[in-house]
Amino acid sequence: MSKAFIHKNFVLETKIAERLYHDFAKDLPIIDYHCHLSPEEIATDKKWDNLSQIWLYGDHYKWRAMRANGINEKYITGDASDWEKFKVWSETVPNTLRNPLYHWTHLELKKPFGITKLLNTSSAKEIYDATATMLQSQEFSARGILKKWQVEVVCTTDDPVDSLEHHIKIKHDGFDIKVLPTWRPDKAMAVDNTKAYNLYINKLADVANIDITDFEALMEALRKRHDFFDSVGCKLSDHGIAQFYPDDYTNSEIKAIFLKVRSGKALASQEIRKFKSAMLYEFALMDNEKGWVQQFHCGPLRNNNSRMYASLGADSGFDSMGDTLVAADIAKFLNRLAEAGQLAKTIMYNINPKDNDMIATMIANFQDGSMAGKMQFGSGWWFLDQKQGMEAQLNSLSNHGLLSRFVGMLTDSRSFLSYSRHEYFRRILCNLLGNDIENGLMPNDMELVGNMIQDISYNNAKRYFNF
User: Fold this and answer.
1) Number of domains in the chain
2) Can you give the pTM of this predicted structure?
3) Buried residues in 216-232 as b, exposed as e (16+ CB within 10 A)
4) Cα–Cα 20 to 30 A to 32, which of 161, 178, 181, 307?
């Protein structure tokens, strides 16, 4: 009988790596400090009818692969039935060999479903029916899956105008997994589109119960919402930006720019940059005051296919790596905060691997000795969230900083099945360090290296975020 593809020593290339994973990493709880799970689905303890609903809905990684495989959009985001969509996905999976989707797919079938068969056209119906039956049980509800993965903390991604009613309900229910909001104020600085921005500011004014007619009122409303997020347990902010904005500006300029956009007039490019620079700085001050961690996801080039964007909207699989030169802007932004003594704990994620060493060396400029690992180089993100990308990030951080202080992995996903990414990361980490020991590059000291693995996989995040 042949060994299953996803077996207990998957990715682990040496006996030492096997020991490191099974003895130190495998059974640790999970802290998922950045994801896009729906708090409503956790609050209502959602169940899914079939694997398509929990697996294919909203997953632009899979959508991109199916398009590349010649699948008609009807079977991707269109009106085809759930079974029809799953069927074409099963046809696509064998063609994803060497794409991370092949590993992710079979890791997610192995846990939580216990399925070790390879997904293809021959096994599709059996797997679809078996998982549909399992998904009807409480063990495979939203909360049940979180428990299966030993998740301890989930940090969702939330807009300042969100009511956070679902987070409040989850806490009141006494659910033993912490589900906390994350402050994501991107829309509050998105002055590129005057009409959309003003509609958003009107919504912010309503939820904050403040008439936002000038910049001071804008900041008052945002601070009020920031305080509210804090009261519900928020400990992190997150900013999804194409680039950093460190432009010089005066307060009078920002006030005038806000009045201009509020009057419905389009802004010049330099006005947009100055306003975004001011907002990023103000958000950083707010986070530092609260003792939050600020995260910066930098570099994607979004919505490149205008025809498909018009049809399907954002986050539909038409984004790519950007290649903007960002080092000088990052340095200026961080230095402005450091000079003012207002630099909060910070995690920086890059989407282009060309920036790995730059980010790893940049964060070292602003470590201030106040705590271990205050400045963090975030785990491989989006297009780098795969074996080669994770190894490259780990190697850059190792070469230029302290890998031992790294806060580890996150899912950055909308799917409850993506917790296998934590397992995948831990296996890759143990394999990397196991190979170093095997090659005589690190001491063969299981306690020393094993404790480091436990810190990276769990302990560092628990301490860093004060969970």
Assistant:
1) 2
2) 0.97
3) ebbbebbbebbebbbeb
4) 161
What does the block give as tokens for 50? 């079939």
Asked whether residue 126 is domain-assigned, the answer is yes
Query: Tokens 């909360």 label which residue?
Result: 143
**Structure tokens of 353?**
């691997």
Same domain membership, residue 198 and residue 76? no
Model pLDDT, residue 2: 63
Please count the other Cβ atoms lying within 10 Å of the Cβ belonging to residue 205.
Answer: 17
Average pLDDT over residues 35-41: 97
E strand or H helix that includes residue 376: strand 375-377
Q: Which domain holds residue 69?
A: 47-140
Omega cis (within 30) before 185: no
Query: What DSSP state is assigned to residue 184?
Result: -
Q: What is the pLDDT of residue 56?
A: 95
User: Which residues have CB under 8 Å from 376's CB, separation 6+?
Assistant: 345, 346, 347, 348, 363, 406, 407, 464
Query: For residue 54, what is the domain's CATH number?
Result: 1.10.2020.10
Each residue's pLDDT tens digit, 39-87? 999 999 999 999 999 999 989 999 999 999 999 999 999 999 999 999 9
Our CA dihedral for 440, 441, 443, 448, rounded to 10 degrees, sits at: -140
Per the domain annotation, does 2 fall within a domain? no
